[in-house]
Structures are given as C-alpha cells and as structure tokens.
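Q: Here's a chain of 342 amino acids. Please give me its 3D structure as tokens.
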Amino acid sequence: MRSLLGLSVIALAAACTTAPNDEPLAGQAETALQIEQGSVGFDEITWAPGLHRVVVPAGGTGQVHLVDPSTRSTETVGGFSRSSTLRGGHTQGPTSAAEADGFVVTIDRTAKRVLVFDPVTHAILAAHDLAAIPDYVRYEPAAREVWVTEPDAERIEVFSLDPRRGDAAFAQVTTIVVADGPEALVFDHPRGRAYVNAWRGVTVVIDLESHTVRGAFANGCDGSRVLAIDEPRGLLFSACVEGKVTTMDLSHGGQVTSRLVYGEGMDALAYDPSRGLLHAPSGVTGTLATIAVGPQGELSLVSKITTAKGATCAAVDDDGSVWICDPAHGRVLLLEQDRRTP
C-alpha cells in the first residue's frame, strides 16, 4: 500500500453508479481491541475462516493478534521485528498475514523475511529471507504456495510451503515480474488465474500453474489499489485511491461494468460473498461504506458509518461483522452485523 493522506481531489469520469459524499451516516464503529494507546502501523487485517480468527498484524509492535469474533478474546504472537519509532507508519515489523492450511504466514518488513507460525502454540516454525521489501503475503492452497509481493522490486516471490519440514519449510519456486506494481493480490481458482494491480489503472493477469503474466486490462482507476473477487460469479472489484470502486467482468475480458464514487484514500476492500456486500473504508473521510453487489456486478450504496481518519484496512468475518483498523489510535474497530443498516 502507498501513503494515502494528503491526497488532492481527482476529477472522476462519469460512472455507472455514484454515491454522494453527503450521504447520511448510519452510525459509528465501536472499539473492539485496544493494542496500544499510541499509534500502530497497520497495513491490513484479514479473516481466517479455517481458524475462525481475525488476524491483525500490528506493524512495529512486533506482534500479530488473533481475535476470536465470538468472544473478542485475543491471543498474541510475538517474535517479529519491533520498533520504537514510526509506529504510525506501516513500513516496519509484521504488516501482512494469511491463513495457510491451519498455520499463518506473515511478512516482516523490517527483517525482509516471510515466516510461518502455529496459531495454537504461537511458535514460529520457519522463515525465509526475501530479496526485497515485502508488501502482501498470500497463500495459494491448490499448489501450497506462498506468494509475496515486492513493489519496490516490481515482482512477486513464490515459495512452496511445508511446515512439517521445520527450518526447510519454505523453498523458493520462482519470481514473477510485474511492471509498475504489484499492488494487491487475489486468486481465481475456477479460471486458474491470479490478479494484481499496477499502480496506474491496470490489472495484470497471472497464470497460476506457469507463474507467467497472461495479459492485462484497464480497471477504471486513476490510482489502482486493492482487489477483491467473487470467484463463482467471475467478478473482480478494485479500490481506486481517488475515491471510487469498480467492478470488472472476468467473463468478458475484465470489462468495467460498474463504478461507485465514494471517499478519497481508499486502500482496502472487504468482500462478503454470502451477502453480496463490499465494505470500503476511506482513510481521508474517516468513514466506511457498505456497498451492495447486484446480479451483474452493479454497485449501490447501502450505508456509511463513521470510523476514524486514516482507517484504511478492513476484514469481514463469517457473521458479516466488519473489523476495521485505526492506526492513529492503536486499535481495531468493529461494526457488528446486527448494527448495520440494511
């Protein structure tokens, strides 16, 4: 992710659907987890359905938190790089994590490493050095591969993962070059593809089996940021930093079929496929939009709530509740499903 605050307003092209910024607010997210009284360098939080946990990498604190959404109890995993400075930025320590067949893979930006830990014992089982500063880590279960994006080097490092092998759990498979990127990463198993964004208005297609770039298409953004996917329906969604969400139809070459104008500083999308809802936080406005996805991918605003300025990451759990990072205040916010305006 890139820095979001201090952005200038960018003129937006005509959109299929728009949402005025003066839409009434439907409520406010509550504090679910206070990690520190000061700032914490969050970059993303994720939902791990197999573990039934919200995974919260807490940047320079050197910790990853596992939150049980049913009880709000938290387990803390340490052993990552800590920092006493720049806690508000997301350039240090553990900033991205993903579930991996009952384990958790995590990057450590400071150490330039990818690690795997046991969520039960909290033991770090293995680690592997990276060739450049990492951004996101994702696990591809079909091939049991860990993909790590490295935007400064314009590439993705791919590793095989077998936690039973101890220190040799990671083995490098290949690297994938992505010009002007990669930002974000999602997998599309029905089509055997992965998608990443380039920084300026393009989504790149990667073949999962051969690890080769297979093309690209326009995503409707001026500044491309994160992606979300509805695999069964073949719909890909992109957040645009200038304040827009787009839908791309994968059955028709990634054609943009819908746009919704929202708030500047968008750097996250949390998709709830069972309910057909996208949750999009705006770090500039300090709000989160809940967006309905229609049968053909058409986007319409459901509600907006107050979060916090700079809150730019979110995850949605199995119950449909939304967990939102608040870097400036060192906490995780929660919008419970039963408090959401339908």
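Q: Can you summarize the key feature?
A: The domain at 17-339 is CATH 2.130.10.10 (Methylamine Dehydrogenase; Chain H).
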